[in-house]
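tool_call: predict_structure(chain=1)
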Amino acid sequence: MKLRFYIFLFFAITIMSNLNAQDDSISFEAILSKKSLGINENLRVDFKMNKDGDNFTPPSFKGFTVVGGPNQSVSNMWVNGKRTFSKSYSYFLTPTKKGSLIIGQATIEIDDNIYKTLPVKISVSESVAVSKDPNDPTYVVNENLHLVAEISNTNPYLNEGISIVYKLFYSPQINVTNVGEIETPEFENFWSQNIKIPRLQIERGSFKGDNYNFVTWKKTVLYPQKSGKLDILPLSLDVSVDVPTNRRDFFGNRIYNQVSKKVTAGKRSINVKALPGNAPESFNGAVGKFDIKLNTNKTELNASESLQAIVKISGKGNLKLFSPPSVQVPNSLEKYDPEYNEKVSTSLAGMKGFISNTYTLVPQFQGKYPIRSVEFTFFNPQLNKYETINSEDIIINVLEGPLSLDENNINTINTQSSNNILPSINQFKFIKTDSDLVKINSKPFIYSLSFYLILIFPVLAILLLVIFFKSNNITSSKLKESKSRRANKLAKKYLSEARKNLENKDMFYVALEKALHNFLKSKLFIETSDYSKEKISKLLYSKDIEKESLELFIKLIENCEFARFTPASEFKINNDYENAVKVITKIDKEI
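tool_result:
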């Protein structure tokens, strides 16, 4: 009887061990929405695991463009007392070429072990016909989402300002959840400046006669630097769209399908007209409408005093693309190189403001000095002709000072040199040429006892400090565990990665969450299984962390979790990054 009991007990333990081994098995795999597709289609790939892990690293996706993701989803269910866990990272891809492509291995760290997915082969064929089924989410997005480039003037003159505005139109029946820029035009052969958009606003408009919502995505001012036909390369956006279906959930809410779509504004061309060939000699490339002024800060002074002459060009046009004309003064005035100043604002209407050159002038002799008017020529595109304007003449009256030996110097204008420097016999007479140096010590300092003491003292001090700190470190601290050091490095790495992805919400919050998690692992030795807000709060509280820092750290963890399901503004993303840097630095110092 006892023998049968022991045999039964042995088999029961064996079966239970096998069941536990099966329950504890870890899987990490890549799941594709399709293994063959046309080059004009999108592919979804999910990297799925049945146990939570850290430091997920996707493959390079060579041969594909990532048009969506990563989107993170977590499922945690209990059925008949048994826990089922699932976590996945999803990407939407568009192939860049035809043929056989491979999605490489992704990696994840689970329980201090590295797991990898198997490489997956994809077959990409010619473009396939787009479905015209109104129930197909892809077809609905293609028909209701458009990116348009609006150009203010397609036939400008050389150096005449034009604007280009990119608007994303979408039908009210779909919802745009996320937008990212994947191809940015470089505007070759143009001087360009982007107009900052404080925040995106949804407006109502019309597209091909139908009512649409639209968002102004980008505004740029362009000044063509070359005549003839110039191409403006397309802008491309990656847009995530929620498309409503006919299905509803348990609570009666409509179920949406998410579709990732790449939209482009298409290449645009403009014809730039050359400026007329009858330009005056004083023309230096100014195009627009301008005024000129020549002012001095004083008109009466004594010899060897200085004054400032300011040549100011104001108006509307290509102000940053030319220099103010030079001022010509008599030989009897010393003229120094000008100081450039500008106050120019750029809007969709172009540049507006002023530029100026400030010259410092120093008269050497008594007399009256005429500063002749400054001539300035610009091309007016509204009138299609060149215009020449002049400033007013100015007379400088020098009251006291030596008399000029050559009266002709008073009225002679120097046009050859930017600096007028007049020789003067007694100009530097105040400078002493003989020295009155006195020996303070007959015995040389070098090679003396004091010299060697000063030379040796810093070396001895450094050696003593090194010995002190080294012995202090050995007696007062232990070497950190390799796992803690690695987590600390990863925290810095992912915090840096979060900074690089401030414009990509999903990638930013994934990297920020990894940085916070690895920071906790390095400082509190917390494991993935203990990664809960309650556990973190208790551990930080036990380390005497300030309440404000503790609450801010927990708030950042919550923001990372909510960011998977809710939109986030540019301000909120920047604010979360700054708070993360601040709280990590503060907690690190307190610990």
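agent: The chain has a mean pLDDT of 81. Proceeding to next step.
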